[in-house]
Design goal:
mainly alpha
């Protein structure tokens, strides 16, 4: 049985080194490029006809668009249109990474903390800069909820500050951990199933049990792929809302 963690190892496709820097084109980069290509095709070709009776792919594109537009409108209200392109781009980057990873022999780039961490830090940094630019020094009132008794202010401020600074950690680890755990389970059960099929007839029949379990898990992972992209978009909207409205 193969090591289930081997699927998360990055391998170069085209090696390229400049001095001490490794700029190799990896399978992770390939899947990212594929995600960009698929998103571009989906959001352009599928809606090019603008048919009054939308086809299957146009329905998918419109559903994704309306889902994220509804999120930005619900959380950011009048500011929603301004930040919709950013939130929608993040949503599609995460969603495509999750879905591509479900294809056998592909790579799940959202299972790497360096990817999810970079996305989370970008969201955190942008929200912080927006808050500082919009509210100047009043932005720091975010760490002091209204109506707090003076006696507990020295305790509340550190708690609020730690909570705020932990946002990129929770945002990145949540996505990374869900993708890694789900794919590890799929690999383990698939390896167990393959091992049983290599044995006698009785073991082959027994191997149908993990096979059907893995099929059900694949459906669950497909659902989780959408849920995690949605959660990432929701939390991004919440962080932007805090920066814009100081709530």
């Amino acid at each position: 049985m193969q090591n289930p963690f081997e699927q998360f190892v990055i391998h170069p496709i085209l090696s390229l080194h400049i001095g001490s820097y490794d700029l190799s084109f990896t399978q992770s980069a390939l899947c990212m490029a594929l995600a960009v290509a698929l998103t571009t095709i989906l959001m352009t070709v599928s809606v090019r006809s603008k048919s009054l009776v939308p086809g299957r792919w146009q329905n998918v594109a419109e559903m994704l668009y309306e889902t994220v537009f509804g999120l930005t409108n619900d959380y950011l209200h009048d500011e929603g249109k301004k930040y919709f392109p950013f939130v929608f781009t993040l949503f599609m980057v995460v969603l495509m990474g999750n879905l591509i990873g479900l294809i056998p022999y592909s790579f799940t780039y959202t299972s790497h903390i360096v990817v999810t961490g970079a996305l989370a830090l970008f969201v955190f940094g942008l929200a912080t800069l927006i808050g500082l630019w919009k509210h100047k020094l009043h932005f720091f009132s975010l760490f002091l909820p209204k109506g707090m008794p003076w006696l507990i202010i020295p305790l509340i401020i550190p708690i609020e500050l730690i909570s705020y600074l932990s946002r990129p950690i929770s945002l990145s680890v949540r996505l990374c951990a869900n993708m890694m755990i789900g794919h590890t389970m799929l690999k383990l059960i698939a390896g167990f199933c393959a091992s049983l099929f290599l044995l006698g007839f009785g073991f082959k029949l027994l191997g149908l049990v993990p096979f059907f379990i893995n099929t059900a898990l694949m459906g669950l992972e497909l659902m989780i792929a959408f849920i995690q992209a949605y959660v990432f978009a929701v939390l991004t909207c919440i962080y932007l809302k805090d920066a814009v409205e100081l709530h």
